[in-house]
Amino acid sequence: MSANPLRGEASIRIAGEVRTLRPSFAALVAAEEELGPLFALVERASEGQLRLAEIATLFWHCLQSRDGLTRDAVGEAVVSGGLASATEPLRALLASILQGR
Fold first, then answer.
1. Domain around 49
2. What is the pLDDT of residues 12-41, one digit of tens each?
């Protein structure tokens, strides 16, 4: 299944497979519980202060399906693809947080 940008979704390759990131209410609440207020997360991102662990955590909580994945695999995907490739899905998720769907 491919990501639907109209729903605020994005795609990321993890362990050789393209996965969909869906910023549902439940996913964002879980991310906020772990990372703190989402508005502060967006502010840190806009200031270039977002940490690698925060990106991986947001992606983990927004994964549409975690079948066969670990959190470490998500972090490794961010590192192996580089921050440049993580920027596009991150930007899509942050835009969805700020603007809604």
1. 5-99
2. 999 889 999 999 999 999 999 999 999 999
Which two structure tokens, joined as six digits, stand for 46? 């806009």
- CA–CA dist 29, 57 (Å, integer): 12
| Strand, helix or coil for residue 1 | coil
Residue type for position 95: A
- Distance CA(74)–CA(88), nearest Å, equals 15
Does the reported pTM lie above 0.85? yes
Structural domain count of the chain: 1
pLDDT digit string (tens) for 50-91?
999 999 999 999 999 999 999 999 999 999 988 888 999 999
